[in-house]
Amino acid sequence: MQLSFLVVSLAQIVFNLQYALSQKEWNNKNEYASNKLPPSCQSQIYCESEFLHDVQLSEVFGDSKAFVDMKLLYTEPEILSKYKTFKNSYNGVVPPQSELSKFVYDNLAGGNELEEWVPTDFVDGPPIIDRFKHTEFLTWVLAINRFWPALGRKVKDDVKDHPEMYSTIWVPNGFIMPGGRFGELYYWDTYWIIKGLLLCDMKETAKGIINNIVYLVDKFGFMPNGGRIYYVNRSQPPMLIQMASSYYKFTNDLNYISSVITTLENEFQFWMDNRMITFEKNGKSYTMARYYGVSRGPRPESYREDYKVAENYDTEEKKNEFYVRIKSAAETGWDFSSRWFITANGSDHGTLSDVHTPNIVPVDLNSILHSNALILSSWFRLLNDYDKANKYNLIAENLVIGIQEVMWRADKGCWCDWDLINNKHRESFYMSNIVPLWTGSHKIPNDSVAYSVLKYLRDQNVINSNFSVNYNGMPASMYKSSEQWDFPNGWPPLQAFLIQGLYNTQHKLARQVAADLAKAWINSNHKSFSNGGIMYEKYNVTVVGGSGGGGEYAPQTGFGWTNGVALELLNQWDDFVADSSSGPPPKNSSTRRRRESYAKELNKKISL
């Protein structure tokens, strides 16, 4: 028992030393110091004040986000002054919850800053519908198309005229909100919403939404996590260039690209200037991207949750350091996952106290940036700006070298995040380990990378030994934590990354597995819709049509990116036949025979 305690203590000491050294190096480079961090935003009520603190910790609202989404009925100085007087009447003690709740509702109101909005190019029967007229998916596809106006919102002009009274950030065009508690524009969600809109022939709506993000990049220098002021010190996966690329592929409108390319460059440069970190592996220096949301204090929309975790730390500096780490994890879009945990022994089996996102170099972020650089290069070539075309091509080349040399594990058949504290790979299965297939961020021959990745998926038991589908979609990880971006939750964007990534290899078995995975996911989506007209934000991959769970909030429905990914997969494989009894393909089918034939071919070329 004593020996075990000693080993654990030594491990903690070593971890603390490694972490302190890494932080010292980064602090010198980035002039980062806890006592000099900016607030989450400049509004005291929405981001940093005694009033915010008291309301959130008193649990006036079950969801911390509800309070910071309210509209001010009086100016901020007036409300703060009134609250000081109100609290003093209780001798400086936080008033009882009932009285505090009354004060809140006397001074703030439920947000009414959005109005319902029906896109002008919405039609009830877009051309994609014709492909499903004689299938059991017809009602469902019609409903998905009708979700667009149901989720359509426009920010009222009063927000533009009186921005200080709202946490909502005004944007010029209507948009499609994700759904549920997420009633504002979000960054990476919007990519799959755009894909779905384009498939429904709503290109003007898609362009308007992209222009909203262009507007926000012009305003802030980058795209915030979402359309609220409390998000303005962190972003999300950089998908704006991918959105513009999807629009360009659909319309071939190079004039539009020319009109926004300066903003696209500026957003790309934000990541180059603010999210790159230089480190060494095997004596060679690499500069790659990480997530790094820098501001002090709890996330306003999850204030109570963050504050309670931070109570584990004994100094304000350590608490603020945790707040940076948790905000950085929120910036990833994977909020939260064991993927961001680094415990004293280097494991990912920890808790939110073990979040160390700034110390992790992520596969998916670097792959997306590599793809973004290639897209910019190709557009500048079309626009006859060869200097910039070469500039972005060189950036892409440097990124793909890092992805290959730092992250690729030939022995495993995947790419792994890099742990900067322990100078090692994060070897657990995460769906992000396959994203370079989606972005094309590798120089491995297609057949070879397909063999490797299929073997990896099989070895991790996420598909069966005969390469058939094991679940009703692919889980974010194989570790069952209490976090929502872990097993058994499957997320729409991750399905798209894997399915389309496998398809991109052009390998026969990889494409068959992609089709099987797509069918399993589509059947689960269809089941939830058939049961109650619902499309979930995330799904439990062990239950056909089951909602995902875990995390900081109740399961959400709507749902923007779920609808977009479903349309993408249906568009690519419109010969699906729904099977409401199970997601994976039937055991006795021509699909199974084709898969087994391809698997035999694969088994000749890889070691079993």
Automatic annotation (TrEMBL):
Alphabetically ordered keywords of this record: Glycosidase, Hydrolase, Signal
GO MF, one example: alpha,alpha-trehalase activity
Gene3D superfamilies: 1.50.10.10
Signal peptide (from-to): 1-22
Catalyses which reaction(s): alpha,alpha-trehalose + H2O = alpha-D-glucose + beta-D-glucose
Region (Disordered) residue spans: 578-608
EC number: 3.2.1.28
GO annotation, biological process: trehalose catabolic process
Pfam families: Trehalase
Basic and acidic residues composition-biased segments: 596-608
SUPFAM superfamilies: Six-hairpin glycosidases
Family, as annotated: Belongs to the glycosyl hydrolase 37 family.
Name of this protein: Trehalase
